[in-house]
Amino acid sequence: MKTLVLKITAPICLLLLTASCETELLDTNNLSADAKVAVAAKHASPGPYTFNGAVYDISAAPDGSIMVGVNGAEGRTLEVIKNGQVSTMATVNTSTDIQGVASIGSGNAFVTSAGSDLALDGALYKVSNGTYRMVADLAAFERNNDPDAFFGIQWKDQLCEAIDGFSAGPQNNPYKVASSGNTAYIADAAGNTVLSSSNKGDIDWLAILTPPIDDNGEFLIRWNAGEEGEIDCYAQPVPTSVAIDTDDNIYIGELTGALGPQDGVFPIGKSRIWKIKSGENNVVLDQRTSSQDYELLIDGLTSVIDIEIGPDGMLYVVELDENSWMSLLGIPGLTPIGGTISRYHLDGTFDAAITGLSLPGAITFDKNGQAWVLENLSSVRMLDFDVEAL
């Protein structure tokens, strides 16, 4: 699975809550903390804010602003929504699109750029005070290591990448990014890995993800490579997103690539959420085995595109569309029917969900605990989870 260009579809009808446009000053000195949060939410503009370019991620900063990575016709920028206004934080002249965005303070962020065939592009950048610099050459790491092919259980043969217009060899697509202290964690969707990088550019693989399994506990085979079809090529897990809880446990969400014709092609219900224990490294996430280092937290999901730990300590999971990402490819008989944001306890127990969202791509929470959601690769708005989940 490589960089996925999504077709924008007509928005699905939503319950959109709007805040008051009144601007009179309120005396908040005698209000409780909860009341002050409510006032702040009321007087912030809920959006939607629509951007002229593809957006793959959003991230809230400590000052209450929302960072938005925009890939426009005239360049790539990191935009900021603050106090109802949008301004440019920095221009980021990367060779490929900005994908992941992770705030590391007001005016500072990690961003990732997309990969390309044979891992010729893709990097981690730090944006600060209107400037940017490359922190880690993630493409070079993939070319030199290709962990899912040459480390761990070595489940992927490089010849298996020669499908869907790509070449046999290393492949990468750095997607969402999260940070803890001085370390960034990057979900490499085409590399089937989660990478870690220090702020000095020291890269390692935190986790290798393995293919989904069938009812017999075997990896799902998509196709066969080699002169005589002797090489099994498996459905790819495609990690898209990373979240970190207050105990430094790491959560990973999967999109899941196309299946073989014998398994129905469309990867509906094949996406998973993994949980890696704090302090672990070089972990192979394999559903066929058990380990003290990690656990399969949630399965049966479809096209997970983002995950986030909310201010309530719950895990929020964004599924792009109930018919999978393949519903966006114009396949006859398979059309988008709406995405979902679900809330789970950190033990994987389901709590609540909003369905029927229009291509939800990312979620973040501002300093007041207010959720914001990206939809249709271009539109950002506030989301009242508890109201819209009713």
TrEMBL record:
The keyword Signal applies. Keywords: Signal. SUPFAM superfamilies: Calcium-dependent phosphotriesterase (SSF63829), NHL repeat (SSF101898). This is ScyD/ScyE family protein. PROSITE patterns: PROKAR_LIPOPROTEIN. It comes from the Bacteria. The keyword Signal applies. NCBIfam families: ScyE_fam. Residues 1-21 form the signal peptide.
